[in-house]
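**User:** Here is a favour to ask of a fellow structure person. Please take any protein you like and set down a full record of it. No explanation is needed for now; the record alone will do.

**Assistant:**
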Amino acid sequence: MIQENQYLVSKARSSIGQILAFSLLISMLSHGMFFKYEWLILGIILAGYTLIKIPELDLETFNHTDLLLAGLIALSLLGIFHPVRLSEGIFEAMHWGIFWLVYRLSRQISQAPAIVTGVIKKLHLIAFLFAISGWVPIAGEIWLAPGLPEAGRLSSWFGYPNAAAAFLGAVLLLNPKHLLITICLGISLVSTGSRGGIGLFVIILVLRELGCVLFNFPRRERFFKLRERFLPVFLKILGLSIFLLGGLLLIKFFYEPALTHLWSWGFSSTSWYERLHYYRDGLKLAVEAYGFPRAGGWWAFPEVQQISYWSADPHSSIIRILLNQGILGVVLFAVWGYLVLKQEVQTMHFQDDYQRREALNRLSVVLFLAFHSFIDADFSFGALGILFWVIVGIMTRSNYFAKSHIRQVKTLRFR
């Protein structure tokens, strides 16, 4: 009987892993799940699967992430009473509801390392197909090619190079095992010409490697091991850079505007100038709403804008949440981020080297996507949101066991 139950649980988790990978693939192929009808279709698929296959979700592990997502759904619906566009409040609630389903499904497989590994491998394959498609000329006939000012930069299935950079950078931080995939994703990342994406990727990568050093050695040995640890890492980065330099020739031939955009750093550029106006106008709208949620709050930009934008999207997850879910939504996210980071750091003290490395990889993905979304329209693309919450759901396995371990340690110390 026990073996039969274990088999059924394993089969159910395997099925969940497949539906998560399938959902991510479908969302990627559907322009990154940017348009409303794409959100509706995937939402119906996930909701139907959950109702049929998983009639009872495990609520014993209900935690602060569930409270965050439930709170954002409630705040979205609350904004209906003070709307800019009433339908947008319902649509926002559906957004967060889909992410909640993805998170809960990911938690269901988080205690099965083999299934988690299988999902990550499928993610690497999806990213490889995504990158390769960006180099196929016919791709521009199937998916929307980026218009001005992003024309001439790799965007593949998304139609927006910066969102493509966010996805490619996130998958690279998960450390694909195959060198060919790593090289392909690295060259494609540079071909997006995303200054914020590439710059933030390098920063997070360096911090992750530094984290490996700090957690893998006793405190008194850490700084003596830095040189020893970073030498092979430096050589790997050097070798990858040589491949990337070779890839620059391909980029120059296929995506020369990406290189031009990449080298044009500075706050005087049109991109940064418009973003600063987005953020300023977003804060002004939030003050006018007294920090309360407004359904479709970001649609009020035409009321205050003083220059023409390339897009009506505020290009910042913080500003978008501030306008749609109010100041309380931003506070909820800030508290949640602190708790997740604190738990991850506590967890790493009780893990072996391999587990710690995997935990750092996943944490780096979450930090990369979160910080990049602060300055771009990442989570307007449902595919990036799904990737984010899948990784968060997988991360909770180690946290769940770490908390019980930490409580035992504290109890022993108290005695």
In short: Residues 339 and 391 are 16 Å apart (CA to CA). Confidence is low (pLDDT under 50) at residues 218-224, 400-415. The radius of gyration is 22 Å.
